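FAQ: What does the model actually see?

It sees only this:
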Amino acid sequence: MTEGVLRRYAPYLPVGPGTPMISIGEGGTPLIRSRRLEKRFGCQLYFKLESCNPSGSFKDRGMVVAVAKAIEAGSRAIICASTGNTSASAAAYGAHCGLDVYVVVPKGNIALGKMAQALTYGAKVIQVQGNFDDALRMVRALTDRHPLTLVNSLNPHRIEGQKTAAFEIVDDLGDAPDQLFIPVGNAGNITAYWRGFVEYFDAGKAHVKPQMMGFEAEGAAPIVRGQVVEKPETVASAIRIGNPASWQKAEAARDASGGIIDMVSDEQILEAYHLMASEDGVFGEPSSAAGIAGLLKLTRAGWSFAGKRIVCVVTGSGLKDPDTAVRYSTVSLTEIPAKLSALERALGCG
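And it is asked to produce this:
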C-alpha cells in the first residue's frame, strides 16, 4: 500500500503542520523494463506507468498537493479547465475531501472515459463551445473574481507534486536515466520532472541529470513552431493544447538538460500506441505514446541510443479513451455460430 505523495516526500514539498496529509493512494507507480521494444533501439528502456495512479493518470501527484494546500488555505471549492485527466483527478480528490468541484471542458474534445470519471465523482461539468485554451482563459478570469481555487498546472503546487515521479525513478533505478521521453501538452509535466531530477541531484541522491526529450503532437505543437496554435488538432486529446501554460518553463527544462522538444504526427502516435500494447503489454492513452513515437522517429532519423538508459512516461491509462482504442484497432473481431466446429475453423485448429 502506497503511503501517498505527501507523506513519502514531505521534505521536498511545500507542506507544514497545517497541511492535511490526504491520500487516495497516489504515487508509487511501477517502473517496468521493456522486454521487446527496447531491442529496436539497443538501449535499456523502461516505462513509468503513471496510468496506475488512482484516477488513472499522472495528474494525481500534483492534484493531491494542490487540494491539500487549498484546504489548508480554507478553500471549499476548486475549479479547472481540462482536456480530461485534470478534471478526473480534481473530481476524485474533491470528492475525497468533500469539496465542490467545477470542471470546464471543450465540448466534443474530451475522451469518454475521462468525462465519465468527472461525472461519476460528482463534479459540476461545464462544456465550452471552444478549445482547451478558451476554457483555461475563462477559468483563470473566473478565479480572479470569485473564491475558487484554480487547480490547473498554473497552480504551483501541481508542479511540486508532479516532480515526485522523478524522485521515484531515481529511487527505483538507483540514479537518473540518461534520457526521459515524455509527452508535452500544457508542458507542466516536463517542467516538473526536470525540477525533480535537479532537486535530487542537488541533494546528492542522483549523480546525473537526464536529457529531457519532450514531444508535442504535430497538430498541436506551439513550442516547436514557436507560435500559438489557434485550433489544435490531434488524436491525442490530452495534449491537444495550442498555448501551453508552462511554455517558457518547458523550454528552460529542455535547454538546461541539453534535450529537445520535437513533434510527432498522429500516425506516429498511433503506431507507437499499438506497439507499446502489442509488444510490451502497456496500454496507455494515445498521448502516452508520444514519447515512444518520438523515440521511433529519432531512431529512424539516424539517432543512436545504444547503451543508453531511457525512461518513457506513460501518462494515462488507455481505458480513459476507449473510443480511440476501438476506432483504430489493428485487430478485427470475428463472429461465429455457437458451435465447436466453427470455433476450430476460426482458430485454424481443424
